[in-house]
């Protein structure tokens, strides 16, 4: 496999970004040997405490840890071998996590080594890895993508897989495993940490919070890395569309944005661009809205703008909207169980029509009627194979097309009734993969490097079963605080593939949180006025207020002033 060892083949921007020196928190500047661990109070899981404790007897209840300045030379005396794996979808800044890990390990002891498992967790099971040296790392610093070691979605959960993973690490004398991933991947990190302790293996497992969706966060994990960069990329494209509709004035653009289980990306992009309509899945769920009600609301905005001669606009749709509609949520939950229970029978069927008829025969009456009412294409997408975690592949469900077709029908009804006299032409988009591998913003370049460096300090201190935590992110990077949060602290029990499983709880958009409340204040104005904002591309050079800007989400949630 070809690898880069220098920047000779890179674009001019990448060459300059490789030279950028991320700003470390003052706490970490002198290296892992210059910090001490301060432990807090014992913790408990966010829910289902008794069940989670029973599943994680060796790692449940551990205290939060915070790094404080102080001499700790002991951790640098023994050479260690650490390994890193990238798990799940890509997110801008992954390479800087690895760079921070490498630099932190080498700062503690030049003899420390870092290896990367190839292709995600499957690399652990297959024993595929390579050493990550400072020379190899040169061409990857501050770059997008996960191409240094690639990623994958294999989940290590069976007894055989756990035993194989442990055997691989023991055989190669690995002292620490760092798992970079989202909620599912870091749940897996917690499972591995517990298993290793059960087996008496002295192997430290550390998680790093990654997902552009922004749904892995809490008081101690203020944001997952990649969210800042991805939302800036999407906002540039949506802003361009806003400028286009304001110029052409004849189309409605419906933009579906990535975010399978939460609407953080959509809400953040809305704050950046001020579209006419923004659907927030969590609000739809709280109000128990039906598809018809959503379409009626859309028709109201389209009609009101048409009365002012504005047959154009921009609407943002979260990728996971369909799962937030209660009637659809109930259907999907039932399908999750049915498809798992009848996997063998469905595999023998050759057509979608045959599978749909079989599924309908197994559904309760109301859900069967709903399934029958869905267009064949949407029904087929709902029955597609699940991802390795048992989730519907929501990114393949073209919700924006469903909404446009239903909206077109509703507007025709209104026109027939003399309540609408406009013209409706729609253009549909899905912005998803475009945001996952962008060159990280200055914020993400700094944040991911700090997360990796901090993870090295956690690993060297033997803090197994912890998630790397860098916080106070509305401050300058030098003032960020560092430490670790027990993985079990964020867990609850959910039903996956028909079984009860421990998982890190997803952080959804809170309707009483500041990001949504600030949006709710202005959305009526945005609906009727052409109050579009045009963020433009990510800026890496220039004034700090442009290069170092943080997300509206962080700004509102942490009470920072504009």
Would you mind describing this structure in some detail?
The protein is an alpha/beta fold. Helices cover 42% and strands 16% of the residues. It is built from 22 helices and 16 strands. Strand 3 (81-87), helix 3 (94-108) and strand 4 form a beta-alpha-beta unit. The radius of gyration is 24 Å and the shape is globular. 49% of the residues are buried. The model is unreliable at 1-6 (pLDDT under 50).
Fraction of residues in β-strands? 15-25%
Average pLDDT figure:
93
| Number of helices, counting only DSSP H or I runs of 4 residues or more | 22
Distance between the termini: 47 Å
Percent helix range:
40-55%
Rg from alpha-carbon coordinates? 24 Å
Number of strands: 16
Structural class: alpha/beta
What features would you highlight for this structure?
four-stranded parallel β-sheet, 562 residues, 16% strand, 42% helix, single chain, alpha/beta
Put the structure in a nutshell.
With 562 residues, this protein is α/β, with parallel strands linked by helices. The strands form three sheets. Strands 1, 2, 3, 4, 5, 6, 7, 8, 13 and 14 form a ten-stranded mixed beta sheet that branches. It has a four-stranded parallel beta sheet with strand order 10-11-9-12, sandwiched between helices. The protein has a two-stranded antiparallel sheet with strand order 15-16.
Question: How is this fold's topology laid out?
Answer:
Layout: H1 12-19, E1 35-42, H2 49-55, E2 63-69, E3 81-87, H3 94-108, E4 113-117, H4 122-126, E5 129-131, H5 134-137, E6 151-152, H6 159-171, E7 176-181, H7 183-198, E8 204-209, H8 227-248, E9 252-257, H9 264-273, E10 277-278, H10 281-286, H11 291-307, E11 313-318, H12 321-324, H13 326-341, H14 343-347, H15 352-362, H16 365-373, H17 376-382, H18 399-416, E12 426-431, H19 442-460, E13 466-471, E14 481-486, E15 491-496, E16 499-504, H20 514-528, H21 544-547, H22 552-557
Parallel strand pairs: 3-4, 3-6, 3-7, 7-8, 8-13, 9-11, 9-12, 10-11
Antiparallel strand pairs: 1-2, 2-14, 4-5, 13-14, 15-16
Helix pairs in contact: 3-19, 8-9, 11-18, 15-16
